[in-house]
Structure formats: C-alpha cells, structure tokens
Amino acid sequence: MTTKKFLYVNRKAPYGTIYALESLEVVLIGAAFEQDVSVAFLDDGVFQLTKGQDTGGIGVKNFSPTFRALGDYDVTKLYVERESLEERGLTEADLQEVTYEDEDDDWAEKPSIRIISRAEMADVMADQDVVLSF
Amino acid sequence: MDYTVNGETIAADEEGYITNLGDWSQDLAGVIAEAEDITMDDERWEVVNFLRDYYDEYQIAPAVRVLIKALKKTMGPEKGNNKYMYELFPYGPAKQACKIAGLPKPTGCV
Fold it and tell me: Domains along chain B?
C-alpha cells in the first residue's frame, strides 16, 4: 500500500459545534491506516490547542488533553497559522505543549506544534494528497 | 445490562460498558470481569490500571496498537505484544480490558 499525505484542517472553535471533536476522532481512527498525517489549525481552530481549557460551565467533556496523545498515534505534525493566532491576540505561549517521542532519535521528546505563516500554510496544503476540512 | 456491586445497581449499556465513568470501583471491575469470564490477577490489573491512567491523562482509551507499544516500552517486549495481551483478554484488550477499567469503548473500535 502506498502512503498518502493526509491533512486535516481545523477552522472552528473547540466547543459550540461538533466539528473539532469529530475531526480529532477521525484523525485517531485514520491513524490506524499508517498514512502520513498532518493536522492544521487556522482561523478559530487555533483555540482548540489553547491551554487551561475548562468546560465545567457548559457541561461537555474537555477533550483538549487528547491532542497530547496524538504522538502515540504517530501524528507528529500540528501546523498552527501565526496570523490566525495574532488576529486573536494569542501567542505560542497560550498553546498547550504537545510533544512526540522520535523513534529514530533514541525516543527523544520533540515538539509537535509548528507555528507557520499563512504563506507556508498554503505550501503545506499544496503538498498534500488528501485535504479534509472541519 | 446493569451490574450489581455490594447491593448497588450500576448502569451499563447493552454491550456492558458502564454509563457513568465515576461509578467505577475495584469491586465493580471484579464483577465486570466475572461477567466476561475473566479472573483478575496481577497481570490483568497491570493492564487495567495502565488504561485508567492513560484515560486520566489523555481523556481517551488508547487503540490496541498504542496500548501494546506503550506496554512494550514500560514493561518490556515479553508483555508488550499481541499474543500476551490476547492471552489475558481473549476477546480483545480494547474491548474487554477497557470495559473492566470502566472506560468507554476505544475510538475506532467496532
């Protein structure tokens, strides 16, 4: 089986709609097929990775810790668009830390989140075989 | 399919996964295991406890592949393999061990 490059694009806030959670579930399920998976966060989608989320007031599960499990599923490329962060008054420091262990580098822990510009995001998208938008 | 533990009724869905994750106790785990025809021992508790810790940290039950990879790393290759896992939980570690651990069915597990 040839490996394809899959990109999951997240543009919506984590709560209020089901898109963010559904996207994450699809990523986890799709990881079983051993494809080359990347995940992108832009527009309000950048809020999905913010740290210190507390859903106690709205009665839904806080699934943000699950992003930290993606490394176990060999999903190690989380692209976050810098302009989207800036437009919302956010910086990299507002995002939770997500790491993966690099099997080819003696299990060294490395960051999964990569902040890239809008132009670089366009290149990432152009480079994919399959792009799925949520 | 509900369970009865120490005179208390614990709600579960038609497949036997408990409805309210907060209802879980070690006694309940024993009752669920019995319903699955499994006798809990140290080795099985090791897996169940691992699953509970994983859920606590990441809010998901790991896929079998992820579970085995993690056990291989923490407990060595003699435990971190498919054969060992299916000896402990013949109907699948995801299905049975997660059920006993009081977790939801793993995402993507049919």
Answer: 3-100 (1.10.10.370)
Looking at the structure of chain A, the number of domains it has is: 1
Q: What is the pLDDT along chain B (110 residues), one digit of tens a residue?
A: 789 998 889 999 989 999 988 999 999 999 999 999 999 999 999 999 999 999 999 999 988 888 888 888 888 888 888 899 999 999 888 789 999 999 988 765 54
The minimal CB distance from A32 to the residues B59, B60, B65 is found for: B65
Please give the model's pTM, rounded to 2 decimal places: 0.89
- Whether B100 contacts B88, CB under 8 Å: no
User: So what's the ipTM on this one?
Assistant: 0.86
Contact A40, A125 (CB under 8 A): yes
**Domain holding A26: CATH number?**
3.40.1260.10
| Cβ-based contacts of B58 with chain A (< 8 Å) | 65-66, 68-69
Q: Which residues of B touch A63 (CB under 8 A)?
A: 59
SS3 of residue A81 by DSSP: strand
Token pair, residue A84, equals: 């989207």
Structural domain harbouring A12? 5-133
Closest CA to A77 of A106, A30, A51, A38: A38
